[in-house]
Write a structure and sequence with these properties.
With 196 residues, this protein is of the alpha/beta class. Helix content is 38%, strand content 22%.
Amino acid sequence: GVRLCTRITDPGVHVSGHASRLEQERMIELTRPKAFVPLHGTLHHLVRHGELARALGVEQVAVVENGTSVLFNGRLEVGPKFQHGKVPVSFGGSDLEGETLAWRVELGRNGVAVVCLAMAEGRIVSGPTVLTRGVPGVDGDGPALASLVKIAQKAFERARRRGRADLETELRRAVRRELEAMSGTRPTVEVQLLET
């Protein structure tokens, strides 16, 4: 005769997952710990939970934050700190650091677009083609990608007399502006020019 409500059966149902103060008190009374280390929650919650344990007669209480070790050999002692949190790794298990990690974060946030074209004697002989990944409203959208190709062609015509460096910059800026207008994001735009 029990009706079980969960977030799957009733999406509007939410329970915090954190015990109430009365429930915490009852658990301490039932278990009667000799040592107590509150876990899970903000520092404010941990401190309050530790205070409750002390008020209920637990003599050894240690409130610590992530990364701080606790040693127990009959007595609780706060130990040294250790590196903690997520450690991003690449394929093969090596740590990602610095510029590589910053690039990955940026690509994950805004996506990437690649503009490719082949040219000979200052004229387009193939392309341009535009490929996007992770750009909302543009990935796989034929008309949006066709519009980007036209933008790239116009940018090429505007800048072809300025030289290779200016051409890449002009293509990158024009495509990025259009992508921002289409998607509301500023993806990384890579330009690949092939000279034949």
